[in-house]
Amino acid sequence: MYGIIDCDNCYVSCERVFRPDLKHKPVVVLSNNDGCVVARSNEAKKLGIKAGIPYYQLQEKFPRHQIAVFSSNYELYGEMTGRVVSLIRQEAPNYFRYSIDECFVNLKKMETADLKQWGEQLHRKVMRYVGMPISIGIAANKTLAKVASHFAKRYAGYRHCCFIDNEEKRVKALKLFPVEDVWGIGRRYAARLKAMGIQTAWDFACQKPEWVHYHFHNVVIFRTWRELNGEDCVPEEEMAKKKSICTSRSFNGMVSEFSDLRTHISNYAARCAEKLRQEGSVASAVSVFIRTNPFREDLPQYENFIEYPLYTATNSTITIVKACTEALEKIYRPGFQYKKAGVIVMQTSPEDAIQTTLFDMDADQFDKLKKLDRVLDKINKVNGTETVVLGSQQYALRSGKGKAEVFANVIKHEFRSPNPTTRWNDIIRLK
Amino acid sequence: MAKVKILGKEFSHPKELKFADAIKAGFPSPAEDYRHDGLDFNRDLIRHPEATFYGRVDGDSMVEAGISDGDLAVIDRAVEATHGDVIVAYVNEEFTIKFLDLSHQKEGYIELRPANPKYQPIRISADDDFEVWGVVVWTIKPWKR
Hints:
Chain A is of the alpha+beta class. Chain A has 16 helices and 14 strands. In chain A, helix 1 (10-17) crosses helix 4 (74-91), helix 4 runs antiparallel to helix 5 (115-130) and helix 13 packs antiparallel against helix 14. The longest helix of chain B has 4 residues, at 41-44.
C-alpha cells in the first residue's frame, strides 16, 4: 500500500498558525511579486475566487468581502512543511517528498496495522504539533492513493484519511472521479478523452489496453491506466526527484535593457544552481525564456524560449549562470518591454552519476568550481541569501547601489507575514 | 533553535566518527570508556522539535510568576495542557501568556490567570471557540543585555 500525504491549502494554513483569528475567514496568498492568487482557504474558494486570478481582479470583483491577503512567504512555508515532513518520516520511514506540500509514503512494511486509523492519528498529531491540517489517501498504488486523497479532502466523514482497501471502494471512487483530475493525465489528454466521451476515471479504466495503446502512444498514460486498474507500476525513483527546477518572475515594471535582463536571468540561474546543490543533483541542460506583457496590446509583443545543453551535467553556479546568459543573448531582441523571464534547469540526475564528456573541462578545473560553490553556499548560509554573488548578478554600477538594495525595490511583497520560526525579531509577542 | 532547518532537507545532526581515537596506534586513553556526548540544550531541553515555537514576553502580566517583559518563552505544542500550566493562547486577536485554571470546568468555564494584581483573569466559557496554542516549557531570562 502507498499513501499520499499533503497539506490542506498549505500556504494559507501556514499563515493561519500564527493568525488563529483567520481560522474560518477567507484567506488568499499571492504569487511572487503579488501577481496573482496561488493559494485559497476553503472559505475563499466558496466565494468563487479562482486560482490564478490577478490580484487587481480580486480587488475589483470582491470589494465588499473581508478577504485576508498575504504575499507569499516561502521562508515560512519551507520551515513549516519541513516540520510536517519530519513528523511523517517518524511514522513512515519509507517516504519521499514530492513537492513542498506533498509526500508519498510506502506502507508495505506496515500492512498489519490498521492503516485507516494510522492515517487519522497522523492527521491529529500533525495538527497538534505544527497546527497544519493534512489529508491522507491510501491505496494499492500511487495513482489510486491520489484519488483517495481527493475524497479525504472533500468529505469530512473520512476524518482526513481515505483508504481504498477493496475492489468495491475502488470502483465506487473511480465512478465519482472526473478523468481530468487523475494524476498523470494532463489537461491536453483530458480534453481528448472527454471528446471521446470519457468523463470519469472509471470510463477510462474500463477501456481495453489495445484501445489505450491505439489512441495514446504514451507510456505515462498507459501506466496511469494500469494503476487505475489496481497494478502498482509507477517506480519510486522516477518521482523522488523532480525532472526540472524553474525559477521565474514577473517584473514589477518592465525591463528592456539587455544588461538588466541579464541581471535577472543570472539571479534565477544562481538560485537554480543553489537548489540543485541542495538536492544533490545536477542538470544537463538549461532553458531560458523571456516575454513581454500579453495584456499590453498597445505594445509590440515578443516571446521566446531556448534550450541550451550543458556539455557536462553540473550544479556549479558559474557554469549555469554562464550558459543561461549565453542562451539569453541568443533570444534577446532590443526594442521590447519585457515583463517576465525565467530559467529552467532540466534533466536533473543524482550528483554522483556525473559523466564528463571528452571535450569538456579537466578534472582540476572541475574540483576548483566545486570548492568555489561550497564557499559560496557557506558564506550565503551564514550571512544571509545573496551576500556573495557573481558579477553578472549585480546591477550595473550606474545606480551606485548594491544589488540587495536595488532588488528590494524590484520584488513586491506588500502583504508579507513575519517569519516567527526563522528570525528572532519575528517571534510571536506574548501579552 | 529547534533542530529544524529551512526547506526541511536534513533534520539530523551530522554524523561524527565517535570512536576515531581507537584506531590511533599507541597507548589507549583511559577516558575512552567514559566518553559522553556532552550537554546540548537543543537535544536535552526540547523534547519535540517539530512542535516547538518561541515567543517574546511583552508586558508585565506574569511578573509575579517570574516571567517579565522581554523574556523568551519556549512553547511546546505537543504537550497536553493541564491545570496550573503556563500556556500560550490566542485571545482578542493577540497571543497571551497566562496560567491555565481548570478549577471551574464543572461550572462551564475556565480561566486564564495573570500573575499580577493589576490584571483581571480572562474567563472563557465552554461555548467559546477557544484553544490552547501551546504550553510554555521554559522561559529564558536575560540578565545582561
